[in-house]
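Possible regression after last week's pipeline update?

I re-ran a chain I had predicted before the update to compare outputs. Posting the input and the new output here so someone can diff against the archived version. Not blocking, just want to make sure nothing changed silently.
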Amino acid sequence: MDMETSRHLSAHIDRSVQDVYDYASDPSHLPAWAPGLGSSIELVDGQWVMESPMGRIVVAFAPRNEFGVLDHEVTLASGETFYNPMRVTADGTGCEVVFSLRRQAAMSDEDFERDADAVLSDLRRLKRKMERP
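New output (post-update):
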């Protein structure tokens, strides 16, 4: 088994850091660009709650900041929480969005690859959405 613990997945987006950050940091947009995480989202008692393939989850982003930090925690119904580092940084006239996928304990290579494919798919969807005129 490959013991890789993190993989940095990215997409270049031909749009400003601020535009991408403003869009991606708004949890209400998650179902549009990260449908693998959840199909709908609503603000319930100050928490963003999604209906996901894993059941109801809570998503909490880092507070708005000037550094492009989009780190977020996903809390499952079981109470288990997963921390997901994510950044938007300047890259020429556009930006790069980088998601650091963390391998969970006892995760098979196949599960890790499936998660990586899902994250890349979401990043590509974000790119298409942001570059659309």
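Follow-up from reviewer: compared with the archived run. Helices lie at 17-24, 30-33, 109-131. Marking as no regression found.
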